[in-house]
Structures are given as structure tokens and as C-alpha cells.
Design a protein that fits this description.
Layout (H helix, E strand, L loop, with lengths): L1 H6 L11 H8 L2 E2 L2 E2 L2 H13 L3 H18 L3 H5 L3 H13 L8 H17 L25 H9 L4 H13 L3 H6 L2 H9 L5 E5 L17 E5 L1 H18 L18 H4 L6 H14 L11 H12 L10 H8 L7 H4 L5 H9 L7 H17 L6 H14 L1
Antiparallel strand pairs: 1-2, 3-4
Helix pairs in contact: 2-4, 3-7, 6-7, 8-9, 8-14, 9-12, 9-15, 18-19
Length: about 400
């Protein structure tokens, strides 16, 4: 094939392997460079923009499939006449303009192919596909708070219960949740915090490329019910494996074809989480269970953020956006104070996650105590215990 490329004659393009290994091998990619001149140009452009491994993988997947479709190498493609390239791209993208695929998907493929040729000095003119307002290819059902708890109660295992409650109470994207390690939450879990801080940071992308979208660092919290479920799951892990190390995944795989010691270090996949959520929705009796993806729980979480607090107030809009991992508009993001962790924990504690009214009453009492002792250096839990002891002795 190399001889054909050097002579500028189109030749067949084949793949030896599947998966990520096959993707990089077929396009001769090593890190952020490729032996194919055209692919190398694209990688240089992507590295200058975001440098995202997930974006790189998405782009290379489309390029590889297009090369397979036309049976040509990437470099051969860039040597074709502009009109021929446009015809091939339009023909290929039209295959995805059908009821089987989303129009957004077709436009995304077109965007990637345009970027590939643009990186090689070719501006191609190809028609895109109209996307109506509020267009969704797949229906989506967003469960209510009570339905989420029903899902958790019917999740089938301690791990699955913790996954559902963590997705619901943190609002994390699936890729971020599966990239968490035990060390991210270890300190606060060991200290017995009822509401635990959950950090999101760019280094997570080394474990899961899609984690930490747009490299935005932020943190959210997990509610008391989720923390209880997580502790039970970790206790079960401790019983089975003898320890839970800081660098282990927070949620490890339960694939029984792997040795137990390998299983504990294998990150759960997004597909596994999807199966967990749909199975729980089905077991909970949700009629639309097939339309409940993991991302729907992030939307349930958003409804909690926007809703009425347990004290009757509303959460500040900027704090809502911060807990969602969004960048605040204009200069607001630079001036938003995210250093006051305990203050934000107090704000989070006012959210209406409780199943019953009595739970919210106790949560309101807890938030009042946190606020009263804020900045004193005194642990309100210890102070409350001392107060109860004094009252008991009177």
C-alpha cells in the first residue's frame, strides 16, 4: 500500500484489528502524530485546539470509517479533485440521513470530514441536514425523585444502588462518574461526612478520555442517602478483597470472567452503567424504562437544583450552574467564589433530596448548625454531642 501512496495511485484500505488498537494501527497513529501526512495535519490542528483524547478518538473513528467506505487511504483522499471529494463526502453523509440515524449524528460526521479536508488545505462545499427545534431522535423519560428512589431500591446490588444515587445526587455525567477513584472521596468518607464533596478535574481524562468535559474543574456533593449507599458498597468491597486502595475505581467492574484482583482495578464502562440504569427503571415499574438513559438522572438532579429548598427558598442561580459543571456567562465565572467549600456544602444541604418531610426537617436543623459553627474551627457534630451530654446530666 505504501508504494501506491508514494506513486499517488489510489489503493485499498483495510483494517487488521478492531477497537482502539485497530483505530490507531490503521491510521498509523502514535500519540498526536501519524505516518499519514493528512492525518498528521488533522492531529496537529486538534492538539492546538483542545488536545482532548476523546475528540481525537471521535475524529479518527470517522476518518477510518470513511476511508473504509471509499476503499482509499487518507493521503489518497486528499489528492483527489475537489469535486470528487465533495461527491464522496455528500454520498457518505447521505447514508446517515435516514430514520435509522439522528440528523445531529449526520451533521457531526459532516463536520469532522470538513475539518479533515480543511486541515489539509481543502475547503469543501457539502450540504448539511436540517435539525428542527428541540429535535430528539430517541425519546427520553426523566424520572421523578420518588421514581429514582424506587430505581435505587430495585437496582439489584449494592454497587448498582450506589451508582444510581450518585448519578442522581451529584449530577455527574456518566464518563465523569466512572472515572472517579476511591481516593477522590476517601478523606471525607472516613471522617463520616453525611454530605461528601465529589471533585471533577482534568487529570480524570487520563483514566476516561471523556471525563471532565472541556477541562472544567469544579466540585459537587453527594447527598446523605447516596453516601450511605456508597459506604455499604465499599464495606462489601473491603470484605471481598481485604482492602480498597485509593487508586482503585470508585465503581469497579463485576465482570466475572476476570480474576478478582484484576476486577477490582477495572473501571466500569459507560455501557455497563446504561444497563444498570435501564434494568433498575424496569424493575421499579417505570412504563417508559427503555427511555431512561443515565443522563436522565442528571436532568432529575437539575430539577432538584431549580426547585424549592427545604427552607422554602431558592438556590442562587450561579451556584446552580456551578454544581452542574457549567461555565458562568461573561465575567461572572471569574468572580464566583468556589473556595468556600463549607458554605457551598451548606447550600447543597438545603436541596430537597429527602424522601420524607421528616428527613428534610432534620436536614434543615443540620444546615442551621453548619452555618452557626462556620469559621469557628469547631466541629458542629462534636459540639452537639457535648450539648446533649450536658442536657442529659441535668
Amino acid at each position: 500500500m505504501q508504494a501506491c501512496i508514494e506513486e499517488g495511485v489510489p489503493c485499498g484500505f483495510s483494517f487488521r484489528f478492531g477497537g482502539k488498537r485497530g483505530l490507531l494501527s490503521s491510521l498509523k497513529v502514535d500519540g498526536w502524530s501519524s505516518l499519514y501526512f493528512s492525518v498528521d495535519n488533522l492531529l496537529k490542528r486538534l492538539s492546538r485546539k483542545s488536545g482532548s483524547e476523546a475528540t481525537k478518538r471521535s475524529y479518527l473513528t470517522v476518518i477510518r470509517r470513511f476511508c473504509e467506505y471509499v476503499n482509499m487511504s487518507p493521503d489518497d483522499l486528499t489528492r483527489l479533485e475537489k469535486k470528487r471529494i465533495e461527491d464522496l463526502v455528500q454520498e457518505y453523509c447521505d447514508r446517515f440521513n435516514s430514520p435509522r440515524y439522528s440528523r445531529k449524528y449526520a451533521n457531526n460526521i459532516l463536520h469532522i470530514l470538513r475539518s479533515f479536508f480543511n486541515a489539509n488545505g481543502l475547503e469543501i462545499s457539502v450540504e448539511g441536514y436540517y435539525v428542527p427545534t428541540r429535535y430528539r431522535k430517541r425519546p427520553e423519560y426523566i424520572p421523578t425523585k420518588n421514581e429514582v428512589y424506587d430505581m435505587a431500591d430495585n437496582a439489584g446490588s449494592l454497587r448498582n444502588r450506589a451508582i444510581i444515587l450518585m448519578l442522581y445526587s451529584t449530577g455527574l455525567r456518566v464518563s465523569t462518574l466512572i472515572a472517579l477513584i476511591y481516593g477522590d472521596l476517601k478523606d471525607e468518607l472516613r471522617k463520616g461526612y453525611s454530605i461528601v464533596k465529589v471533585p471533577v478535574y482534568p487529570e480524570m481524562k487520563k483514566r476516561v478520555p471523556e471525563a471532565c468535559k472541556n477541562n472544567i474543574s469544579y466540585f459537587t456533593f453527594a447527598c446523605e442517602e447516596a453516601v450511605k449507599a456508597l459506604n455499604l458498597y465499599l464495606e462489601d468491597r473491603l470484605r471481598r478483597y481485604g482492602s480498597v486502595e485509593p487508586d482503585e475505581p470508585l465503581f469497579c467492574s463485576e465482570y466475572n470472567q476476570l480474576e478478582s484482583q484484576k476486577r477490582r482495578y477495572k473501571f466500569i464502562t459507560a455501557r455497563e452503567v446504561q444497563r444498570v440504569v435501564k434494568a433498575a427503571a424496569k424493575n421499579a415499574g417505570i412504563k417508559e424504562w427503555k427511555d431512561v438513559p443515565p443522563h436522565a438522572l442528571r436532568k432529575t438532579y437539575e430539577s432538584i437544583l431549580r426547585g424549592e429548598l427545604i427552607d422554602g427558598g431558592r438556590l442562587d442561580v450561579k451556584t446552580q450552574e456551578f454544581f452542574m459543571g457549567h461555565i458562568l456567562p461573561g465575567s461572572q465565572d471569574a468572580y464566583y467564589d468556589r473556595t468556600k467549600i463549607e458554605s457551598l456544602r451548606t447550600d447543597y444541604a438545603r436541596l430537597n433530596f429527602g424522601r420524607k418531610v421528616v428527613e428534610n426537617k432534620f436536614r434543615l436543623l443540620e444546615t442551621s448548625l453548619i452555618k452557626a459553627f462556620e469559621g469557628t474551627g469547631i466541629d458542629w457534630r462534636e459540639a452537639l454531642c457535648e450539648y446533649v451530654k450536658v442536657k442529659m446530666n441535668l
